[in-house]
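During the second year of the project, the team shifted from modelling isolated chains to modelling whole assemblies. The rationale, set out in the original proposal, was that interfaces cannot be judged from single-chain predictions alone. As a representative example for this report, we include one of the complexes processed in the last quarter. Its constituent sequences, exactly as entered into the pipeline, are reproduced here:
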Amino acid sequence: MTSFNFKSIFKKINKKNNSLNNQESDFLNNFGLAEFGSALDMLAAAELTTTNKLKKGYLNHAIDEFRHAQLFFNHAKNLINNFNNNSANVSGVAEIGERIRYLNFIGEKPIYSELNELDFINFVMISEAAAEKYFTKLSNNKNFNSETRALFSLIAKEEGHHVLYAKKELEKRRKNGVKGIYKSYLYIKWFRFKTDLLSNTRKIWTKIGDLILALIFFIFIPINKLFFKKNYKFNTYDPRSMI
Amino acid sequence: MNKYVLGISCYFHDSSVSLVKNGKIISAVQEERFTGIKGDSSFPSRSIEWCLNINNLKISDISYIVFYEKPLKKFLRILNSSIEYFPKSRSFFISQMKRWLSEKIWTKTNIVKKLKFSSEKILFCQHHLSHASSIYYSNNLRHSCIMVNDGIGEDQSFSIWSGEKNKIKLLDEILFPQSLGLFYSTMTSFLGHQINEGENKVMSMSAYGNNSFDNELNKVISISDKKIFNQNMDYFEYQFSLYNNFSNKLSNLLGEPRMPNSKFLNEDFVLSNDKSEKYANIAYSTQKITEDIIERQSNHAYEIFPSDNICLSGGVHLNCKANNESFKNSKFKNVYINFCPSDSGGSIGASLWAWNNVIEKNENILNQDVYLGPSFDNDFIEETLKDLKINYTKFNTTKELLSDAANYLLKNKIICWFQGKLEFGKRALGNRSILARPDNKKLSQKINNEIKNRESFQPFASSVLFEKAEEFFEIDSKFKNSYKYMSVIAYDNKKNTNKLSGVLHVDNTCRIQLVEETDNSLYYNLIKNFFDLSNIPLLLNTSLNLKGEPIVDNPIKAISTFLRSNCDLMYIGNFKIYQND
Ligand SMILES: [Fe+2]
Ligand SMILES: [Fe+2]
Ligand SMILES: [Fe+2]
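Output from the structure prediction step:
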């Protein structure tokens, strides 16, 4: 299950890495982080659900997603190791955390607590189906080597299983006379559309933001540099002050 | 009426929350434990919610909220760096501004909005003062020198404080960009490890090296009589770059940086090739110069504030080897490092500082507990196991539980141990642990390779019965209060080396936790039970989590971790669960 937007995932982590293997391994690492984020979503669902009989399913799903993450990480590691890389400058643990949040749209609360149970099951079904479709497409992409493609197709297959579990659960509910299943489906479609849109526009906003900040940098910083005193000292003792 | 202060640390790394009631921390937790994101730096909403709920409080019951640093002071330092290093600082400036303008600069507003709290009652404590408070106000050494050493606060990277009559005063400081902590982190990155995570790996690597890189490292950083140390900033880029910590000049000096995950030891646990030898030597010199500088710092601290006691805080003092080496000849008779030297302890320090300086001005004498997080009763655990359709064995008494677990430890089983309240800080101190007998090298290799996916050169800590420690290790009375938090290493005293083969590092040291019954009776008695069967009064202890994940907080996360691990059994509350069913 993945609440992230696939198309926005291809982002360089380290600007020094520009060889093909490095790019591919960055790409795979990002998938790993995205799967990891999905695992956290499912784990939170297992913790929070009051529908006791769903607990086990959510937990098993989380364990699958953790495994997917590990598969991507390991594969990325092998790619890098087969290639002579000269740039260490490893990023910090907090930055990786930030990437997990960024890729998965993890907010302050887990996604489970923002939706009701029915919506969440629909969310799982729709997101898993999107993942299945996307990974299937990647598994046919000849730009990747055969091992990478095999990995994509394995993951796609398992995401397909997750779709089926969710579908089965919805079917059971329909048979039990639960109403509003289709309405919930439409709501989640809309919900996903919004996050996808946000994710795509986020890229544009980031570019614009970078541009404005670069302008500020080249205009205001040099002016300040002229008057810059190196030995600055700010000491206030007001406990209410942020400075 | 009871008064409460809530401390918050976030937006840098390892966010956390702590709640003070009448001068004592009653609850504290790191946000990563709830979110599952290691080192999570986001606003700790879930931790705050938990802290309030568990103590039946509403936000209106809180007298003050204290943030662990002065955000705007830090912001000005970043602007100054951008100006000073113009135009090299372009991408640094852009990425920092994005972070700052999107949330950090709005810290006060965020707290007001998210928590619906009056802005009048929000306080800001300086970063290093928070560190100093986190140790000074959580113990009963009322006359003490305090030394803080970290990467960077607002602009301080090192500071010396006096702790006297419940007041803390700044005596000396070193400012950014000079920073022993950032030097060590830079070397961590150079040696292929993650910053804020891999520093202890550098410490472990150093045990395999020799001093052949001392001259090179001395060009980078060296002891100075006037300023304690001199750092040549030409070798660094962290002053103006977020992604590159070191410059090409460092690579020219030391050669190619180490590739992450590249092989360091071969199957026989010796350095795998010339390259590893080089990296081991670089790690050795990095560690050695760090120890020398800290020793110099502490001598300086003693000169300006002579006291029997010294309290240490800041991330650099997670380096338990340096804590030992730098202070073993020190004039301070009592060296105290507690469970939260790193930035997650900032919330603890900030809240204790406010209590002791804004609310109460009286001395209060206390010894702070470290088990401050969530706990789960047996009913809850049993219900969870039933919901998850997991087979379990139930123990009716603690005695049965302990003797069963001790028996399996004796039989070389690796067990997960989930009991009582979650501990605060980086170390698992016996409530969320993976345990094994300490005298079996194969077991520790298995934990490294198959369970925690650590590199084979990383040693394990051990938990030792307090009264038996001297039969195994060289125990220094200076550190008597610090051993219980796994803050210092100790050397094997060669009396029982064969019983330590799984926990002894190649330099004959071990990071030890001395366990007293009064600190954690269940854990103490588990080790005691194992001792009765094996005549070995200690256990290998590593945190209950897998690679890249934080220590688990609740039963579901514990079970998820156990099922994905190759551990044999898990004892969770009064229950035992198995693999494969
Ligand atoms: Fe999935
Ligand atoms: Fe997946
Ligand atoms: Fe710090």
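DSSP finds 18 helices and 21 strands in chain B. The mean pLDDT of chain B is 94.
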